[in-house]
């Protein structure tokens, strides 16, 4: 009897510690300027291949008709799980991003839609995360320094951080994590 009671108390204690240790990220946490953000993505291999090999058809994309109607989106979201600095976000949307210069099948630029399935999932209002592969910037500093310069001058600009992106256990290397220009950004910079 004492053993059961002791086990029950121990179990309650462990659960309480896990609840207290659970961390919620803030928008400042996902745009650090003094360390590299860790982003681990788990996605079904067939879905990863689907988004990696999607691309734009440049003729219609650059055609004159784009002035009169939106062009068809070439990229589709797939279901994935993401962990950011140890905080798990299950069932997010993942898609490739990019126009011409950042196209890559081995190391694509990525968009993560936190509220893809769970409409309440967000980080301080942020629901979309953007990870640029820096394919056109081998130094990896242009975006980070450019946005930092504008922010230091109190000019409205997205925040930018470095992130190591891992997909299914394979590191894709360092990406620039750039704040998406949407309502949370507009509220942050314009009030």
Overview of the molecule:
This protein is α+β, with helices and mostly antiparallel strands. It has one domain. The chain has helices at residues 2-21, 45-52, 58-62, 142-152, 183-190; strands spanning 37-42, 78-84, 87-97, 109-113, 128-132, 160-167, 170-179. Strand 6 (160-167) and strand 7 form a beta hairpin. It is globular, with a radius of gyration of 20 Å.
Features:
single chain, 191 residues, alpha+beta, seven-stranded mixed β-barrel, 7 strands, 27% helix, 27% strand
Give the topology, please:
Blueprint: H1 2-21, E1 37-42, H2 45-52, H3 58-62, E2 78-84, E3 87-97, E4 109-113, E5 128-132, H4 142-152, E6 160-167, E7 170-179, H5 183-190
Parallel strand pairs: 1-6
Antiparallel strand pairs: 1-2, 2-3, 3-4, 4-5, 5-7, 6-7
Count of discrete domains: 1
User: Hey, roughly how much beta strand do the residues contain?
Assistant: 25-35%
Query: How far do the termini sit from each other?
Result: 60 Å
User: How many separate helices?
Assistant: 5
List unreliable stretches of 5+ residues.
Answer: 10-21
What is the element string, with H for helices and E for strands? HEHHEEEEHEEH
Q: Mean of the pLDDT scores?
A: 86
Structural class: alpha+beta
Helix fraction, binned, reads 25-40%
Main beta sheet strand tally, sense and closure: 7 strands, mixed, barrel
What's the overall geometry? globular
Number of strands: 7
